[in-house]
Fold this protein.
Amino acid sequence: VSQGAHPPPLLFCLPTVTSEQIEHLHRRFKQLSRDQLTIRKENFDSIPDLEFNPIRGKIVHAFFDKRNLRQESDGLADEINFEDFLTIMSYFRPIEMNMDEEQLDRFRKEKLKFLFHMYDSDHDGKITLQEYRNVVEELLSGNPHLEKDSARSIADGAMMEAASICVGQMGPDQVYEGITFEDFLKMWQGIDIETKMHVRFLNMETIAHCY
Amino acid sequence: IPSVSSIVPESCLLIVVGLLVGGLIKGVGEEPPILKSNIFFLFLLPPIILDAGYFLPLRQFTENLGTILIFAVVGTLWNAFFLGGLMYAVCQLSGPSLNHIGLLANLLFGSIISAVDPVAVLAVFEEIHINELLHILVFGESLLNDAVTVVLYHLFEEFANFEQVTIIDIILGFLSFFVVSLGGVFVGVIYGVIAAFTSRFTSHIRVIEPLFVFLYSYMAYLSAELFHLSGIMALIASGVVMRPYVEANISHKSHTTIKYFLKMWSSVSETLIFIFLGVSTVAGHHYWNWTFVISTLLFCLIARVLGVLVLTWFINKFRIVKLTPKDQFIIAYGGLRGAIAFSLGYLLDYKHFGMRDMFLTAIITVIFFTVFVQGMTIRPLVDLLAVKKKQETKRSINEEIHTQFLDHLLTGIEDICGHYGHHHWKDKLNRFNKKYVKKCLIAGERSKEPQLIAFYHKMEMKQAIELVESGGIGKIPSAVSTVSIQNINPKTLPVEPILPALSKDKEEEIRKILRNNLQKTRQRLRSYNRHTLVADPYEEAWNQMLLRRQKARQLEQKMNNYLTVPAHKLDSPTMSRARIGSDPLAYEPKADSENLPIITIDPASPQSPESVDLMNEEPKGCGGLPPSPEEDEEGLVMRVKEPSSPGTDDVFTPGTSDSPNNQRMLRCLSDPGPRPELEEGEPFIPKGQ
């Protein structure tokens, strides 16, 4: 199926992508990498539509983030191979009918962890006010005429809301350090991410592989 | 003890009321009125549909559009043909009483009765608060099946007159479906764009903004009906298209007006429809045929259930969020028939359809059954099956940020995969919208406002209004936590403003709302006339502010002039008043207007101590006439007349700097002559005072 690499064992034990999908992704990988074995950050520049995306920096970064690649180390990889590419793509699998409660919960946590890593750019496990401001600024980066203050105040307001959801009432001298992963989970409780965060074409009949 | 309204849905009660009224009228000996199709289609139906279309939750609707379309089109077609065919078989088999009803007549009957009715669905589903997915599925289906119904109805009606139905006719009929539905949507979109464009220029005539929304939508409906296109789809399309642009252009008050008027009209229409249904039942000529009616009822239910089951099996192959059996049950059970079916049946011509009365009886029976039995039992069934109910989530800024982030992320992933999916096209549409459409249809700087900022402004405004309406700025609602900016960013000074840098208009708008609500009592005592309403204070805020400041300065000038007029000139108070009154704009406001004494005036009490004092001082200084009674009544010429709009009072700060001003004025009055510093050309303003 793929040249040289069989998919990592982790991918197999979850209901997974089919061989057709792997074929398709492999073709795309080869296109992006210009027939090399690995992709670097620069290769993503060749995608024209990605230019308009306000958070393209964060998306590309996420591909190279070692935490997403399920590697124990931290930091950024310089290049990724097809295995890693598939690993990242697997975060966007759709939900399956036959998943039980525990699988569903793990599924959801995985996706939210991916998102969390995107927000938390300095890898310290917390989304600080500055990082959140950064996120909002990037989201609004498509509007050059906006003042800096607007993004900042929106982020501040959102952070305050997050603090009030996660901690509740706070005294005037308590300081809310940042959004941890547990708080992040709380914030997303209302939104069913498992149905929203998927890419449609990965939803074909799946064959569960298991080693 | 459960109240009646918790068991019986409102629609049922209204039909019962109609029955009673109809019975009463008949009992008296009069002929009860029947719901004429004319009135129904032209006046009663549009408000309900417009209300539904204008407030359609677009996100869920587009996400489930495929499912909705399949249910609406394929489902209705299946229902119509299944029912029509089976009824024909029944008619043939049941003997001489029904034998004469042809296939086409039966198919026509099937097409009338098979459409799920939006009015009935709305009436029942509103009360059970079911989760948004199911609500939008059933409701969307009831809206979109109008095209199918229109086509089938006209088709079979025409065919019933033909001697022979050829293949060409059938193919043309099939094509006409596309014309009817797409044409209706097209008409709606055109009118929606025109309405949005009109609203761009309404900043000076805010009062009639709501009118445009209603007018253009109704015109879309009428235009579509004129050409036998689907009026309901035109109405929905126009509401959906115009809404984002109109809401960005119109004032806050107009938005509220539109909302309340739409809700009001649709409530009234709905009530009238159900009552009339009841009355028409009593009034109509009925022809009861057991076989026909019972088999209609039976086959309706069977057709609905089968249709939903088969279609869901098919749809679930393509859906991410599959429809569970519970969902399917609710969808099938929610297929209520209503007044549209009745009106369509009523439109049938006696000449061609002699069994019209029987049809009407059967239609009414089905309507009654679905509305009463299904309507009443759906609520306990929903509870029994533990179907997910609507979540009362408040839209928060966090959610908005996350949703937008997710959208962009998924679009990015799709681009990386090279897959042109759902998100890719949505993103392209949004960019097109932002780049071209918004510039044309939204006035001023709001055309460039990104969605996140617009959302934030809306939330801030809502919070400001809530805060004020909950009884003043001092009282913090318990829902708001005590988290402040200190808690998240201790380095910031407490005075850092939390509100984003709002544009001038927005700031004024918020300030006006706050001030407005704090002065509610005073406002209520004033009577409005049409012409004062035209200048909406929110929008004219800036100009009004300047105007008032100007007026205040003029008044201050007048006062100073009055006071610095040398006392020995011995003007009678009347003369002075006349002079001041005659040249209101004699003086231009000086640049250093801060040096002018602030007049402390309390408009509510004309007989304030200050004014009386001054009047008393005046004769002392000039040795003039005692103040005439009228002057006392009037107080001082400096008294501000009725504020022309709310919020004038801010210019006159009450209660500050009483004594120094008084003293200054006294000094002016007792001054025997003109001040040496006064120059000829300049207005009479004391320098350096």
About this structure: Chain B is about 65% helix and 0% strand. Residues 10-386 of chain B form a domain with the Na+/H+ antiporter like fold fold (CATH 1.20.1530.20). The CA atoms of residues 78 and 308 of chain B lie 10 Å apart.
